[in-house]
Amino acid sequence: MIGAGIKRGTAELAVLSILEDGPLHGYEMARRIEEQTKGALRFTLAALYPMLYRMEQRRWIRGSWETSDNGRRRRCYRLTPAGKKKLSPLRQEWSELFQALRRLKKVANA
Amino acid sequence: MIGAGIKRGTAELAVLSILEDGPLHGYEMARRIEEQTKGALRFTLAALYPMLYRMEQRRWIRGSWETSDNGRRRRCYRLTPAGKKKLSPLRQEWSELFQALRRLKKVANA
DNA sequence: TCTGATATATAAGAATATTACATGTAAGGG
DNA sequence: CCCTTACATGTAATATTCTTATATATCAGA
Predict the structure, then answer these.
(1) Closest residue of chain A to B4, computed from CA coordinates
(2) Which of A30, A72, A89, B9 yields a CA-CA distance of 20 to 30 A from B2?
(3) Could you tell me the CATH number of the domain that includes residue B100?
(4) Which residues of chain B have pLDDT under 50?
């Protein structure tokens, strides 16, 4: 698994990305992110839930209580229009960061 | 410039990378990293210095006071063998993280 | 002598992460 | 029926890290 220090800041992008696929509740988000990144990205639920509240306060996502088929209550989050709008510039930033780090490496190896 | 939340955790890799080129003091590190990443990565010095102490405590880098030609004292940091050893797995981790995030995006866009 | 660049550092507060704690339901096996 | 595993959400305490502001001091040039 990827170390703790590294994945700082990646969680928000991961959550927004996974929600682009459709509404999801926290537990399932974590499961899918772990699955789709082949275990590379895995956050503890204790880190996830507070993060979801923060993102909800910023109006990037919106949560609503739902009852699943098996009668379990769970909080289902969906992307808001604001969150959707946030997604491409956020990806752009990440992409720039990757390039920047690659440049550093290149120079160091030259 | 890249947003604050994003660059979390990137600083250590950047510092180690830049020190691979040779010993440097903090101020110059910041300048070069900013230059070589074309302004994408830029950290405030107030964030840099405490980070250098942390990395020194972990024995990844070692600092020593030097006096430059113009008589100014400055703290010159160099990679330790341990820091050098840390560098490739750290890059590996980053690379995995990038791929993981790309996978998420791919799935979301599919 | 004043300003801007160089150079390092700390303090206070905000944001975030980790670990541990706390609760409860459902499904399946023994 | 009981136990365990998976599902599902949360809080509290603590630790770490980041930002903003402040402080110090030298040097070069106007």
Answers:
(1) A9
(2) A30
(3) 1.10.10.10
(4) none
Q: What are phi and psi of B42, to 5 degrees?
A: -145, 115
* B91, B104, B106, B107: best to mutate for the A interface, most A CBs within 10 A: B104
Q: Does at least one atom of strand D sit less than 7 Å from the CB of A56?
A: no
Question: Residue type for B87, please?
Answer: L
In whole angstroms, what is the distance from residue B1 CA to residue A100 CA? Answer: 11
pLDDT classification of A53: cutoffs 50, 70, 90: very high
Q: Which residue has the tokens 């696929």?
A: A21
Which one of A2, A10, A35, A43 makes the best mutation probe of the B interface by having the most chain B beta carbons within 10 Å?
A10
Distance C28 C1' – A96 CA (angstroms): 49
Domain count for chain B? 1
- Strand D and B72 CB separated by under 7 Å: yes
Min Cα distance A26 → chain B (Å) is 16
How far apart are alpha carbons B75 and B110 in whole angstroms? 51
Domain that holds residue B29: 4-109
List pLDDT tens digits, range B57-83: 999 999 999 887 777 889 999 999 999
> With contact defined as beta carbons under 8 Å apart, do B32 and B51 qualify?
no
Q: What is the pLDDT of residue A41?
A: 84
